[in-house]
Design a protein that fits this description.
The complex is a heterodimer of chains A (210) and B (447). Chain A is α/β, with parallel strands linked by helices and 210 residues long. Chain A is built from nine helices and five strands. Chain B folds into two domains: 265 residues, TIM Barrel; 123 residues, no CATH class. Helices cover 53% and strands 8% of the residues of chain B. The chains are: A alpha/beta (210), B alpha/beta (447).
């Protein structure tokens, strides 16, 4: 049914996609089917991004369309069983850094991929990452930064997680402009993604899903 | 106007006049030897720009807060304590001896920000911790339905819509009429009415305070830069700054996210606004180069980096208006100093544009493949940069030296290359910074 919707969303034709959702809902279409059609479109955009055929504006526009469609469909979902979340990820930009563009894209992509994302925002102290991960029984902590000066905060957060005794349960990923293999080793994190799609792939690999 | 016969000069003659002015800065050097060291350094840059083989590779790291932090100051002290900063600035230049001064344009006037209630940035002790540098507050400061206001009259838009949002003290400016209402006598009265109101009068008083703080700041910055030039013969790297029109929109007006969405939703307005900003950007850069008698104008590039746009969109939305700015500056003899932050690998083909005159600008790169940069720009424009900030922060002196040695061996010969850091350096290991500069001088003499 919603193949047409998948095509419209994947092509980032915002007005057409939203009008189509209105029509499908008015016709009594299955709301879960609408969301699934959008997720297929997001997979297509993710593949294009990984192949170097789509870029950050396309991810942001896709996230925007997805958000608008979810808002339209959500009132129709009452009673429908919610999809089980893959795993919980506590995410934020580290202490001393207030940049959120990259972090927000990663949060959107993880959410669309079915993770339960706890977004702590920016300038997040190490203790907040650790306490939230413990409270929410998270499997992953994901830290973002833009500034080289924030690398120390990443290192401190990894150390705080070890000190709190949760390193056995929580894996830690980092991302952002200054991140390299060398930086990952320096911070003591378990891995990194060069972009949002890579972050989602890493999270899936760590939580045993495809 | 740099000379009386300016309008009669060709762009190449203007370039030469500006270069000569840079060579003779009107500074009282500590000794003839220091003066000679200064002029040798300027010659290194001129040779690099003109793609000649320099005596050695010029070493020009972007240095931000590093002199202050390395002297044990916090970031907050580095911005606020001018006397302490002055000492740290002198010590840094004495010990490290780069070929350009640390970048005082990055010592932003936070005392002024306090007075103005500046919303565009956070700075240490004001939104970010005392040991962090200043940072942008990303937001849609310009609304998506305001493109026509901007396009119709940028100055009016800036004064009455944009600035009152980003500078708290200027909020009352929203009550003022456009200055273009002042056409003739009968309309003068209505125009001045708001100036009689308490909020506008308070705003003007605050602006006087801001002006005093700005004078203190510029005297402190010029004083410490001038002292380092006089004592150690180190020139400044730029006489001013300007921006790519697409970045003006994307950095601090519509915001990264806002502009990316506009590219889909109202592409023709984005293009029109970028065109409108071209003459403003050229004028800004040329005026700064004139006032400071320095040929180079710094242009930090952000939203055109790899990943931020497709190649097609870069060539459609970003490059055409940046190119007009570059051509406008070069026409006036100014040397655009583009700092391409992030990766520029996908842009190298586009920026190798035959319409930009060869040997008249500089491309400084960050995370760009420098061999590829050499392939595209070698023999066409001066380029450089690239020593990673993460290496200077998390690496060792030996690793840094090895990196610089390899970089110079790979791309520095036979000229047209400037060694620099990939990012502006705030925090870094002092031994790595020293290793970078020393290795640049040593291996840069062997090209």
């Amino acid at each position: 049914m919603p193949h047409e919707l998948t095509t419209a969303v994947a092509a980032l034709r915002e007005k057409e996609a939203l009008a189509l959702v209105d029509r499908l809902l008015a016709e009594g279409a299955d709301p879960v089917g609408i969301i699934d059609a959008c997720k297929q479109a997001m997979d297509i955009i993710g593949e294009r991004f990984a192949a170097g055929q789509a870029f950050i504006p396309e991810l942001i526009m896709a996230g925007e369309i997805m958000r608008a469609i979810t808002a339209k469909v959500t009132p129709h979902l009452s009673g429908a069983p919610g999809a089980a979340k893959r795993a919980t990820i506590v995410l934020g930009t580290v202490k001393g850094d207030i940049h959120d563009i990259g972090k927000d894209i990663v949060a959107t992509m993880l959410d669309i991929a079915g993770f339960d994302v706890v977004d702590l925002g920016v300038d997040v102290p190490e203790v907040r990452f650790v306490e939230t991960a413990r409270e929410r029984q998270a499997q992953i902590i994901a830290m973002s930064c833009l500034l080289t000066s924030a690398l120390e905060a990443m290192k401190r957060t990894v150390a705080a997680a070890a000190e709190a005794g949760i390193r056995g349960e929580v894996r830690i990923m980092v991302g952002g402009a200054p991140i390299t293999e060398q930086v990952v080793a320096y911070t003591g994190a378990d891995g990194w993604g060069k972009d949002a799609v890579a972050a989602v792939e890493l999270a899936k690999a760590w939580t045993g899903g495809a | 106007m740099f000379t009386e016969n300016w309008s009669e000069l060709t762009p190449d003659e203007r370039f030469d006049v500006r270069m000569q002015a840079w060579m003779e800065p009107g500074v009282e050097f500590a000794s003839p030897g220091v003066r000679q060291a200064y002029q040798e350094r300027v010659q290194l840059f001129r040779d690099a720009i003109e793609l000649k083989k320099p005596a050695r590779v010029p070493v020009a790291p972007w240095i931000g807060l590093f002199p202050g932090l390395n002297a044990g100051l916090t970031a907050r002290e580095t911005y606020y304590e001018y006397e302490k900063l002055h000492g740290a600035w002198q010590t840094f230049h004495d010990e490290f001896r780069p070929d350009v001064l640390a970048f005082s344009i990055n010592i932003v006037p936070t005392r002024l920000y306090d007075i103005l209630d500046y919303h565009l940035y956070d700075w240490p002790g004001h939104g970010v911790p005392e040991d962090a540098g200043y940072q942008y507050n990303e937001k849609e400061w310009m609304r998506d339905d305001e493109y026509d206001l901007l396009i119709n009259d940028p100055s009016n838009y800036w004064q009455r819509f944009y600035l009152p949002r980003v500078i708290g003290a200027l909020e009352p400016w929203t009550t003022l009429a456009p200055f273009t209402d002042l056409v003739e006598g009968p309309f003068t009265g209505p125009f001045f009415i708001p100036f009689g109101t308490p909020p506008v009068q308070q705003m003007l008083k605050t602006m006087l305070d801001a002006g005093n703080a700005a004078l203190e700041w510029v005297q402190a910055m010029a004083g410490m830069d001038g002292a380092s030039t006089a004592a150690f013969g180190i020139p400044g790297f730029a006489g001013g700054a300007t921006k790519a029109p697409y970045d003006t929109l994307g950095d601090t007006m519509r915001g990264t996210r806002g502009l990316m969405l506009d590219k889909f939703r109202r592409p023709e307005k984005v293009l029109e606004a970028c065109e409108r900003l071209v003459p403003l950007a050229i004028d800004w850069g040329v005026r700064a180069a004139d006032v400071n008698r320095h040929p180079m104008v710094f242009i930090p590039l952000h939203k055109g980096a790899d990943g931020f746009l497709s190649d097609e969109d870069f060539r459609t939305f970003y490059w055409p208006t940046l190119k007009k700015v570059l051509l406008g500056l070069i026409e006036q003899g100014v040397v655009p100093l583009c700092f391409a932050e992030g990766g520029y690998n996908e842009r190298l083909a586009a920026i190798h544009d035959p319409e930009i005159p060869a040997g008249r600008m500089i491309w400084m790169f960050d995370a760009t493949d420098m061999k590829a940069a050499r392939e595209h720009l070698g023999g066409y424009q001066c380029f450089g940069g690239n020593v990673p900030g993460a290496l200077l922060t998390t690496g060792t002196a030996a690793e840094t030296e090895a990196y610089v040695k390899q970089l110079i061996a790979d791309v520095a010969g036979p000229g047209g290359f400037i060694l620099g850091s990939g990012i502006v350096i705030d925090e870094a290991r002092a031994d790595c910074m020293k290793a970078m500069i020393d290795a640049g001088r040593r291996y840069g003499s062997e090209i």
